[in-house]
Design brief:
single chain; Rossmann fold; TIM Barrel; 2 domains; 6-stranded mixed β-sheet; 4-stranded parallel β-sheet; 21 strands
Length: 585
Amino acid sequence: MSRAQEMRDRERLATEVHLAPRPAKGSDLSVCLAYANTYPVGMANLGFQAVYGILVRAGVLVERAFLPDERPYERIRSLESGRPLSSFDVIAFSISFETDYVHLLDVLAAAGLALRRDDRDERDPLVVVGGPATFLNPEPIADFVDLFLIGEGEEMVPEWLGELRAARRGGGGRREMLAASAAIEGAYLPGAWDGFTSGVRAGLSSGDGAPADSACSAVHGRPAPRVHRRYLARLDDAPTRSQILAPDAVFGDMFLVEASRGCEWGCRFCAAGFMYRPVRHRSARALRDDVLGTALAHRTTVGLVGAEMASQPGIAALCREVAERGGRASPSSLKADLIGPELASALGGNATRSVTVAPEAGSERMRRVINKNLTESEILRAAELLATGGVSSLKLYSMIGLPTETDDDVLAIADLAEKIRARLARGVGRITLSINPFVPKPWTPLQWEPMLDLKTLRERTQLLRRAVQRIPGATLDVESPREAYWQTLLSRGDRRVGALLVRVHASGGAFWPVIQEAVRAGGLDGCPSPDEFVHRRYAPDETLPWDFIDHHVDKRYLLVEWRKALLERETAPCDVATCHSCSAC
């Protein structure tokens, strides 16, 4: 670790405010909780903080580790005591984004550990990984990990810790702890089988989401696991909120509180909307107590975390109460048709000057394809209400490269922004169009669709850029198509993609030259051309690399939704009280 990094870490520790009890100094079990990115990014991640709180309350000796702020990555030690990561019983990673997969390798190497699981021995700590990215598809990093915990930490981590401790009390070491972990529902030991290979045809899935064709379970000579994703039934039973206030974190001025998990609207591109089914909300009373009784005692700005916040019970009244107490509520993305006068006024009244609305597409045809259940008139009405309420800036999220998209659909994004500008010339001072290329995600109805080729994406980006230039006060922020390609490769890839991750790690993170070389060569190190994963439409009867995970969503339901997308037909939002179509309830 460099001297500059060491001093920076000391300053960070000195400014932190711990709301949870301090970790145990001595324990029968030591865990290094690692985030595969830098401290500012990791400490802004509410899932990472939640797992930290779970470990502390369980009496585990827990310390944290992060990627250094700059390359080259020298030896990584724990943040709290500078302890070598190799001296812990467990190194546990929380990974929310697929593009952090390569950083898992960076951390392992900088900790002095072998990258591949098979090259480590009994003296090394268990390498355990959880987090949303791995719930969807852990296979690209399967060769580097001893154990995945597939599911929500509140539900399974305490149970898993109990098994580890029982193994330790019995005199067991690394091998026995790993064997004990296998007893936990939601545990996935990738060393126990070889993974599904993309392109293998195996028929449709059974009703519980697992592959139906028995032959596919032995494609590589070992039986396929059946991993059932764990979930917390009632969010009020384990409220998720900031455990450590870290001024140097992204959103360091905020106190974060989870308001909901999942989403009932069924947007066909959205992994969170299917991975976290059924949707769960904090009760209005419990959320109010957390925000007014805890969050405002420490910060004036409260970040309300959820996939879609306008449908949160009591959200308008809560935002109003926060404003009356001199604070500011900052909800994540709001669905436009659910923004009423009360919510718009409450947001403007609590000094919220910028609000994010996600039309996701410019044309109503494309919104039918992705099942957005949102009309242009509803978007314009919401923008007008927000401006009237005092919100001065709007951020509009949209995608390009969606299935069946045309140039006219792309230009409709600019047309929508222009209509908002024309209607709100005196109200909204700035409109930011945040544009992301469509990335097909596992366990969504569009998981079979390919990513659009980069040439066409660039052409459509330029088309949109020229159209936006004519709109006063509008700016365009577009994610790199190359970044989207990399994300798609890691989202849809199978275990063979790990070979490319090793190459990218060795190159210092420069993924694009590695991808170009692999495409030109038709594959590298046993991995086929990346285009096979990124630009190929997966067949409906194909066994997908992630099919062994049971998200409680029937694969046949996803197929129906995919077909409805191509027919431009919408599906009503989830009614968890009466609907059983997807099987999640």
